Amino acid sequence: MRQSQTWRAALGEARVSLAAAGLSSAEVDARRLVEQASGFDGGELWAHLDDVVSHRAAAHLAQMVERRTAGVPLQYALGRWGFRQLDLFVDRRVLIPRPETEQVVEVALGELRRLAPGRSTTVVDLGTGSGAIALSVAVEEVTARVWGSDVSAEALAVARANLAGIGRPAGRVRLVEGDWFAALPPELAGAVDVVVTNPPYVAAGDDLPREVADWEPPAALVSGPTGLEHLLAIVEEAPRWLGRPGALVTELAPHQAGTVSTAARAAGFAHVEVRPDLAGRDRVLLARR
Ligand SMILES: C[S@@+](CC[C@H](N)C(=O)[O-])C[C@H]1O[C@@H](n2cnc3c(N)ncnc32)[C@H](O)[C@@H]1O
Fold first, then answer.
1. Ligand 1 center from residue 289 Cα (angstroms)
2. Are 224 and 272 in the same domain?
3. Which end of the chain is more exposed for a tag (fewer CB within 10 A), N or C?
4. Considering 71, 101, 127, which residue would you say is the last residue of a domain?
């Protein structure tokens, strides 16, 4: 970087480097990386384009651009990503939170408010990863006591870092390690209002975009030979942990909606429906008992 470079020039250089690496998203990515390095978000950046870049900020930007041109997903290069009201720390230990999962949270919150308006509630987020679902529920629903579980100690370390950033609602969240429901204390059996989860639901051998397959944790994506293994195990065991009334809310792939709905009815859920994501595809199973 030249001496006394402005943010305008740094933005231009970042855009050129990213485009030269073949990134079709060079324009947007350059802006996001410059926002992160400068600390100026959105429109604020445009008011500071002629400010001089500090040595430290330039080094930070150069490091992020280098990672992005090497193929690191934008979210990992930034080290953060927005999810509903949260600004989550993310790295390769966790799945990058997806927009469709924001819809899963929406359904879970709606269910919680329908089931138990005003009273204290218990919510379990299985496979919490970065903590996206568990922490969103805790922040957006003050009555909720939330358990977030994950089999990955590494993912839980990320969730813990994010928990430390949410302030007072953190007092209502517990993070526990273990295989699905086995991570929970036995006394929660029969006492959970809502189980919400975004488990791995990709089939081994399915084609994934390069950036996903190369960078995101396989255990957060792939379930087994059919992709249904974790979903079906959770559907089968959920009734033992839910109160009456209680609800299971799970993300799934559109082509899995029929099979998982059938499994939910077979597991004893009286009301089963599938809700769409914002693109209109079947994405969220809601099963009530
Ligand atoms: C698709 S990611 C979801 C992460 C986060 N909830 C989100 O929506 O962004 C699935 C998560 O389930 C966890 N997981 C995989 N197998 C598990 C198991 N047997 N028991 C508990 N968690 C598991 C993974 O470590 C990963 O964090």
1. 24
2. yes
3. N
4. 71
For strands 242-251 and 192-197, give the pairing: parallel
- Model confidence pTM above 0.90: yes
pLDDT (tens, 9 = 90+) of the chain, 289 residues, equals: 556 899 999 999 999 999 999 999 999 999 999 999 999 988 899 999 999 999 999 999 999 999 999 999 999 999 999 999 999 999 999 999 999 999 999 999 999 999 988 899 999 999 999 999 999 999 999 999 999 999 999 999 999 999 999 999 999 999 999 999 999 999 999 999 999 999 999 999 999 999 999 999 999 999 999 999 999 999 999 999 999 999 999 999 999 999 999 999 999 999 999 999 999 999 999 999 9
177 and 229 assigned to the same domain: yes
199 lines ligand 1 (CB under 6 A): yes
Domain range for 192 is: 91-288
Number of compact structural domains in the chain: 2
**67 with 110, same domain?**
no
Phi-psi domain of 123 (left: phi exceeds 0; alpha: psi -120 through 50; beta: other): beta
| Alpha-carbon span 83 to 18, nearest angstrom | 25
CA of 126 relative to ligand 1 center, distance in Å: 7
From the alpha carbon of 104, which atom of ligand 1 is closest? 8
For residue 96, the ligand 1 atom closest to its alpha carbon is 9
